[in-house]
Amino acid sequence: MALTRLALRSFRNIAQADLSLGATVVLFCGANGSGKTSLLEAVHMLGTGRSFRSRQSQGVIQYESEALTVFGRLHGGRTLGVEKRRDGQGRIRVNQTAAESSSQLAACLPLQVIDSESFAALDGGPGVRRQLLDWTVFHVEHSFAGHWKAYQSALKQRNALLRRGKIDSKLLAPWELQLVRSGEIVDALRRTVFEKLYGLFMERLSDLPAAVFGDLDIHYRGGWKKDLSLREALDAGLEGDLSQGFTRVGPHRADIRFVIHGQPAHLVLSRGQQKMAVCALRTAMAAAVDGTQRPVFLVDDLPSELDANNQALFARWISGCASQVLVTGIDHAVTAQPWLGLPAPWCEPKMFHVEHGTVREAEIEP
Ligand SMILES: Nc1ncnc2c1ncn2[C@@H]1O[C@H](COP(=O)(O)OP(=O)(O)OP(=O)(O)O)[C@@H](O)[C@H]1O
Fold it and tell me: How far is the CA of 34 from the centre of ligand 1 (A)?
């Protein structure tokens, strides 16, 4: 769902901006520290309720301001609004009405981010990859959020009982029942979506040199031994769980492994190749989502680490699965280049020049 308007106030170095985006490709260009990434960060806050760079929203509020606000209008007229206050309070609004949780924002504005942190999909911990898979499952299987929430609350209760050091099976039984029921469903939904994601990922890899990417594979790990049911795995691990004070098996330990020649992919691939693998994964995730819910891509500094051919390929992948892309770059011509060879409307970018927190529309030089 594309954004047609973005308005922000007191967001990092941007005191105020009101932008009519109105294009499928929107480019934010300017010098280091001018505020380009802050604009992507503001859109991210609109789609998730939080920044992608900072855990503390207080750091994002402009120095000496009490609150930041971000407002967005989506294609079709729906509006989203986020306010964050220095005292930790905040408000989320969908269509001018207070929303209960940030997942309501995510359902309206699915987002995909490519930035310098994206490499964590390959070299980070399992939690990062689990979140990526779950982003896809959340947008493809709408029942997922409820089952995952039920699983997590049962897990919290089981862990609290385990920390007591001795088990009262009467207290444990109802939580284990909920844990097993919702855990098996979470795993089944993840497996179904992973199958779809796998095919889409491999399709993209086939656009890359086979000598390198032909051997790249991904595997789903459910979080417990394949040949056991979740109930059996929990029973088998109970003694160890008791001594450790937490549940060591289950869907909360799931992972996706990227393997090449039997090794973790990040130990084999070059930095640019890793970025292309991540771009292939992110665009495969977007392609797995129903056509009416296509995400907006936020791409921070597309040219970094990628040569011109890979930039063009990534732009083509995005054009096949996104509703809109917002891209930052330093140089106007370099940032525009990957899009110009694509069919309309992808070859008609709108450019904004960002300077010391001031954003103005700019012409793209032919
Ligand atoms: N809370 C804040 N209040 C005011 N200014 C801030 C705040 N936090 C960060 N800044 C400043 O805002 C700017 C944010 O820049 P941003 O990261 O958006 O730059 P950029 O244009 O993406 O730069 P680069 O090309 O270096 O990535 C920086 O100049 C930073 O010093």
Answer: 6
Of the CATH numbers 3.40.50.300, 3.30.1370.10, 3.40.630.10, 3.30.360.10, which one belongs to the domain with range 1-110+299-366? 3.40.50.300
Please list, in sequence order, all residues whose beta carbon lies within 8 angstroms of the beta carbon of residue 187, skipping any fewer than 6 positions away. 222, 223, 230, 251, 254
Q: Name the residue type at position 132.
A: L
C-alpha of residue 69 to centroid of ligand 1, in Å = 17
The answer to whether 33 is annotated as binding is yes
310 is an annotated ligand-binding site residue: no
Contacts of 310 by beta carbon, 8 Å cutoff, 6+ apart: 272, 275, 276
Which residue, judged by its Cα, is nearest atom 5 of ligand 1?
13
Q: Ligand 1, atom 16: nearest CA belongs to which residue? A: 35
Which residue ranges make up each domain of the chain?
1-110+299-366, 118-288
3-state SS class at 232? helix
Query: Is the CB of residue 268 less than 8 Å from the CB of residue 301?
Result: no
Q: At what angle do helices 144-163 and 126-140 cross, to 10 degrees?
A: 140
308 is in an annotated binding site: no
User: What is the full per-residue pLDDT of the chain (366 aa) written as tens digits?
Assistant: 899 999 999 999 999 999 999 999 999 999 999 999 999 999 999 999 998 888 788 899 999 999 999 999 999 999 999 999 999 999 999 999 999 888 899 989 999 999 998 999 999 999 999 999 999 999 999 999 999 999 999 999 999 999 987 778 888 999 999 999 999 999 999 999 999 999 999 999 999 999 999 999 999 999 999 999 999 999 999 999 999 999 999 999 999 999 999 999 999 999 999 999 999 999 999 999 977 789 999 999 988 899 999 999 999 999 999 999 999 999 999 999 999 999 999 999 999 999 999 999 998 876
Q: How far is the CA of 210 from the centre of ligand 1 (A)?
A: 40
pTM of the model: 0.94
**Token digits for 292?**
């009416």
Q: Any idea which fold 118-288 has?
A: Glutathione S-transferase Yfyf (Class Pi); Chain A, domain 2 (1.20.1050)
- Taking the CA of residue 41 as reference, the ligand 1 atom at the shortest distance is 18
